[in-house]
Amino acid sequence: MRIGIIGGTGALGKGLASRMIKTGFEVFIGSRKQDSAISAALSLGLKEENGGLNYDVASKCDLGIITVPFSSQTETLKGLIEPLKNKILIDATVPLIPPKVMRVQLPKEGCAALKAQMILDESTQVVSAFQNISAELLQSDAMIDCDVLVCGDKKAAREEVISLINKIGLTGWHAGPLCNSAAAEALTSILIAINKNHEIKHSGIKITGV
Ligand SMILES: NC(=O)c1ccc[n+]([C@@H]2O[C@H](COP(=O)([O-])OP(=O)(O)OC[C@H]3O[C@@H](n4cnc5c(N)ncnc54)[C@H](OP(=O)(O)O)[C@@H]3O)[C@@H](O)[C@H]2O)c1
After folding, report:
1. In this predicted model, what pLDDT tens digit does every residue of 14-56 receive, in sequence order?
2. Domain that residue 66 falls in
3. How many domains are contained in the chain?
């Protein structure tokens, strides 16, 4: 499976890419700038041709992942409607509005993932995941004891994303329809508050009672 990471030059994009590359997936790193994409691809041990403009990466991938700041989610997705048709797009966007990142501030659409689905074609299946996992941990070789909540309106699409998550050594959970992503996105502000108040670096979530 060819995975295209939109905004893959950033912290989360590189973290996810490194775990996926280790697992053997073919990963393409997207950016607004060709040079940045290529240097990020090379830094991950990929070939030059694995870095490209977001549009080209969205075109050649089988499954996309968007890892850009909330403030640029809309503009980025508006430019990718065509190449993302008939594909699954994993949205990791957390609607953080600096400086009050410890405060839950969901958008009027309900959450960032719903906003993404409203922008994209109906043939694109948005599935949200990875909002509660530290990019720094993903970039390291550490074992990650954090689960991943997976929200999406189609069970088959969630299943595909959970399978990908499990293959990279994490545990993904069916967390219901896309609107439930509001809870996963909101949890990130809670985790940031826990990190700050308890002086820990990478708090995460774990499903118990299994
Ligand atoms: N960092 C974490 O630990 C973490 C964890 C879970 C979820 N998240 C969420 O994942 C998303 C990405 O987080 P991040 O920390 O990886 O972000 P980041 O490093 O700040 O940015 C990621 C990439 O987004 C692109 N970008 C920045 N500004 C842009 C703009 N105005 N228009 C289009 N593209 C722009 C940049 O790529 P180019 O300049 O190369 O185009 C950048 O490398 C965010 O929504 C965040 O809330 C982050």
Report:
1. 999 999 999 999 999 999 999 999 999 999 999 999 999 999 9
2. 2-198
3. 1
- Cα of 70 vs centre of ligand 1, distance in Å, is 8
> Which of 8-22 are b and which e, b meaning 16 or more Cβ less than 10 Å from the residue's Cβ?
bbbebbbbbbbbbbe
User: Is residue 208 in some structural domain?
Assistant: no
Query: Ligand 1: which atom is nearest the Cα of residue 71?
Result: 31
Question: In the numeric block, which tokens belong to residue 35?
Answer: 């040079």
Residue from 36, 65, 67, 200 to probe ligand 1 pocket by mutation (most atoms less than 8 Å from CB): 67
Global pTM reads: 0.98
Ligand 1: lining residues by beta carbon, under 6 Å: 7, 9-13, 31-33, 36, 67-70, 72, 75-76, 92-94, 96, 130-131, 133-135
How far apart are the CA of 88 and the centre of ligand 1, in A? 19
- Residue 135 to residue 152: CA distance in whole angstroms: 22
Question: In this structure, is residue 204 part of a structural domain?
Answer: no
Element (H or E) spanning 31, and its range?
Answer: strand 26-31
CATH of the domain at 180: 3.40.50.720
